[in-house]
Specification:
The protein is α/β, with parallel strands linked by helices and 252 residues long. The protein has six helices and seven strands.
Amino acid sequence: MSVKSVFVVGGASGIGLETARHFLSQGAATTIIDVNAERVRDAESALSQKGARLAALAADVRDRQSLDRAFAQGAGSHGGIDALVFTAGVLLPARLADITEADYDLTFDVNARGFWRCVQAALPYFPERGGSVVAVSSSSGHRPKAGNGAYAASKTALQFLAQTFSLELAPRQLRVNCVAPSTIRTPLTEKFAGGQAEGGFTPSAAPPLGRLCTTADIVKATAFLCSEEASFITGATIAVDGGLTAGIPLAS
């Protein structure tokens, strides 16, 4: 079954926006959900094209009621859901000894609980059998970095939630996977591009393959996991990181 209807959470910018653009170009009815209403309007304008089936909705992954309304509206317009792509996330660098409880809670509430809430909200609209869920995790979920512990822990939690969903939803043939990029230039990370941030956090340099990850790299991996070509892949986290988490590279 090809993807006829896709929901992209966090779809108004960065990886999410380009993911939505890809699926629209493939003819899929696409619903983007984002917390920022102004960005949602901008994304709707940027993605609108003749013949495209697009719904752009504002909802907060921390608010189950707003998510329920958005998923019901999008699924009603587009005849259900074939694929859900979760790209929402926050990055608040700080040393674990210094991070505030508010920032720690926000990081987990968006990056991990937000994913759990979205899958719960989407489940009634998937077909009885089939479908795909893909969450954008991070190489930090495999290799933590000083000054970024809460983010890394939240991404590890996200990956384990996805694995558990994959086991529990397997009887429905609903597949659940993650992609884990290394540092990528998006609105989430560009503010750290100039060097060290709070807590001593520094974005990763180029991995062994010699270049930074791109949005296109993530979109291609996500599209593959949503396709029939990945019909026997579930519970996996695919590292899209140029070998960053593979081990220690050769000395230059």
